[in-house]
Design brief:
Elements (H helix, E strand, L loop, with lengths): L13 E2 L1 H9 L3 E4 L3 H5 L2 E2 L4 E3 L3 E4 L2 E4 L3 H8 L6 E4 L4 H12 L5 E4 L2 H7 L4 E2 L1
Parallel strand pairs: 1-8, 2-4, 2-7, 7-8
Antiparallel strand pairs: 3-9, 5-6
Length: about 130
């Protein structure tokens, strides 16, 4: 017998930055899950953008933001179309999985992150 995924419907979808750019332009909310410091150095240009860190830098290293789900829920509804991005695509992958597990329905990960976005020469804000 095959094993069933009890979290069915929570499969993370990662799209490349070209596909992501089209979704952002079509009205998706872009959530930059990098730290505030990273965000201030430059971020994806998007009409609807939020900076909600998934992790914080501490003297002991990076720790997960315990308020992440609550913060996203305070700005976004479970059915809102969301795209999550970070520096390289790792943190946003985990953050996307967390949101899907908590009941969000339409969340996509931007594969490659901000690094891939800037490599393509796509617009940024400083």
């Amino acid at each position: 017998m095959g094993s069933l995924d009890k979290r069915s419907g929570s499969q993370v979808v990662s799209l490349d930055v070209v596909e992501t750019k089209h979704l952002i332009q079509s009205g998706y909310v872009y959530i930059d899950v990098r730290t505030v410091e990273e965000y201030k150095k430059g971020h994806v240009e998007a009409e609807k953008i939020l900076n909600i860190p998934y992790m914080f830098n501490t003297p002991e290293g990076r720790v997960k933001n315990p308020e992440f789900l609550k913060e996203v829920s305070s700005f976004c509804k479970e059915n809102d179309p969301l795209i999550l991005g970070c520096q390289s695509g790792v943190r946003s992958l985990h953050a996307t999985a967390d949101l899907l597990k908590s009941g969000f329905k339409n969340v996509t990960n931007m594969g490659g992150g901000y690094l891939a976005w800037t490599e393509k020469g796509f617009p940024i804000n400083l």
